[in-house]
Specification:
By secondary structure, the protein is an alpha+beta fold. Helices cover 58% and strands 9% of the residues. Strands 1-2-3-5-4 form a 5-stranded mixed beta sheet, with helices on one face. Helix 8 runs antiparallel to helix 9.
């Protein structure tokens, strides 16, 4: 016999019972609803539970017979259909309940009626008002016949029973409306999430593509005037090639992140990569002065990425609209924030590149605002343009 000690520890910790709820939930809803109906049916046939069910109309008790078994089956077993076919379930249970009361069996299975009514109120999709009116119309002759056939139960008892059934129907209706509201809320959350994700992807594509393509266009324009200087032309074309390769790599990585099964990890540009960004802009022919003050914090949350994107967008606009202008980039690391300032002096000329849509600056303002920072983009005093951002970092404590 195998002892518990001979079983590996990882198997001893494994709880087989933990699988049961998940396996049960995978079963068809009809199978999951059947046991309760079987229980009511079985209890109705046990002599100890005879005459312990619902009694409406004070009809004299009658011993169990073949009709009683049929009535118990009609009351209990259709509960298996209470969520899949609630209308059929309610009709069958109501029929069984009527036979139960007319014959005077008063079985435990009569308890199925409020459950069937509750399920109909909660799960019936069509003809709900017609169903409620039909049930009311059917209850009136049932009450009249039971009142005349019984031993003189007061009429208000039938009214009370009807009001209880109406309350059960109302509870089912409330459950239905609550479930529908929750489904609508989840749908809105999913739509909002998809919209936010599309906006995020659009911003990332804009930041990656615009910067690289703008640099390539500017470099290609400059190459047209370097045919008499082969060395400089070769250097410029090599820079265009390198920029194109970086654009392809960045785009491939971004597209990989959109594939859930690819397994790619997020690659976040850091403030330290701003130096590389400045060098790329210099190779595109823009004179850029870079200044970095303070020591970067170990943990800045999303501030690193936002600071990088601010500089990237500002340098892209400098290449577009102030090509050849002296450009300055200042990055200041504080204890609780990162400050970025990028400005041009307006001495250059606008490059012949496609016009912008304004999406870049709007996206930056939104990104900075989400982190609780401040963003501005406005003309400078010397005719240039200045972009400033104060970005709270995750190092604050």
């Amino acid at each position: 016999m195998t002892s518990l000690r001979s079983v590996p520890a990882r198997w001893r910790r494994f709880d087989i019972a933990a699988l049961r709820p998940a396996r049960w939930q995978r079963l068809d809803v009809t199978v999951r609803d059947l046991p309760f109906g079987l229980l009511l049916f079985a209890l109705s046939l046990v002599p100890a539970f005879h005459r312990h069910g619902t009694e409406l109309g004070a009809v004299p008790d009658r011993p169990l017979d073949a009709v009683a078994v049929l009535a118990a089956a009609l009351e209990g077993l259709p509960l298996a259909l209470r969520r899949r076919w609630p209308a059929a379930c309610l009709v069958l249970v109501s029929l069984g309940f009527a036979v139960d009361q007319f014959r005077g069996y008063h079985m435990v299975a009569g308890t199925a009626l409020p459950f069937a009514l509750l399920s109909a109120g909660a799960h019936l999709d069509r003809r709900r008002r017609v169903t409620a009116l039909a049930l009311t119309a059917a209850y009136v002759p049932l009450a009249l016949v039971l009142h005349g056939y019984g031993t003189g139960e007061p009429a208000d008892e039938f009214l009370t029973f009807y009001l209880v059934l109406a309350l059960v129907w109302g509870v089912g209706t409330w459950l239905r409306s609550t479930r529908a509201a929750e489904a609508e809320r989840r749908h809105r959350v999913a739509e909002d999430t998809r919209t936010a994700e599309r906006a995020r992807i659009a911003r990332e594509l804009h930041d990656v593509v615009t910067h690289h393509v703008t640099a390539m266009v500017v470099q290609a324009e400059a190459a047209r005037y370097l045919t008499a200087a082969p060395d400089r032309l070769d250097h410029t074309l090599s820079t265009v090639t390198d920029t194109g390769r970086r654009a392809i790599n960045d785009l491939r990585h971004l597209l990989d992140l959109l594939d859930p099964g690819h397994g790619a990890e997020a690659r976040t540009p850091t403030v330290g990569r701003i130096r590389t960004l400045v060098e790329q802009t210099r190779r595109a022919g823009q004179s850029v002065e870079f200044t970095e003050q303070g020591t970067p914090a170990e943990s800045t949350g999303s501030a690193d990425l936002v600071a990088y994107r601010v500089v990237q967008e500002a340098l892209t606009n400098a290449l577009k609209y102030a090509h050849g202008s002296r450009t300055s980039v200042l990055v200041r690391h504080g204890g609780r924030e990162i400050t970025v300032e990028v400005g041009t002096d307006g001495s250059g000329a606008r490059a012949e590149v496609p016009g912008g849509s304004g999406r870049g600056l709007a996206g930056l303002r939104e990104r900075v605002g989400v982190l609780g920072g401040e963003f501005s983009a406005e003309p400078g005093a010397d005719g240039g343009f200045v972009v400033r951002a104060r970005i709270p970092s995750g190092s604050a404590s």
